[in-house]
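Please check this protein record:
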Amino acid sequence: MKVPVQTRSVAGAIAAVAAISLASIWALTPGSAQAGGDGPPADSLSIVMEFLSNTAPDKVEAASEKLVAPDATYISLNFDNPELKEILPWTGTNKGPEAYSNVFLQVGSYWKIEEFAITDTIASGEDVAIFGRFTYRSVIVGDVFTSPFSIHAKVRDGKMVYFQFMEDTYASASSFRQTGSWTVKTTAEAPSFEVGAR
């Protein structure tokens, strides 16, 4: 399923995609929802989709308070990478509803959305997985990149307790690069080479 989105914010793009009904997503991805665990998968998936459908700047804080547990974990792109955090300040491991809302409040000023598409959803008990792809254009530099994305979330007692978002961080961070390159040496046998040259 491809859902092209023309908008200026990440939150708006995700909200537009997530607004598609749960029934429609399951109809377009037959067999992707698997039963298992302690609760029906639709409950967990619907909680995560409700959150994603309310990530616009004027809605995300209320959605986080409603749908995120007070001690919930949000892992954005990595566990802890200070250098990447300088480029993408929302990265790393953070706690609480504000960690969830802060990501969406910050990200929209960095990129314009060219496409955001959910391709598959899987639910098993408290666990939810969502997969897709997006194309972003950096606001200042103007570089465009396309990345796969994946989300792993856990829902307990009607609230998200865990959320991990993964993407191609080399591509996303590189979309802000103005100059510079790396000299890379991968193995003893391989010659050094340069990447990122303009």
Q: What stands out?
A: Residues 10-195 form a domain with the Nuclear Transport Factor 2; Chain: A, fold (CATH 3.10.450.50).
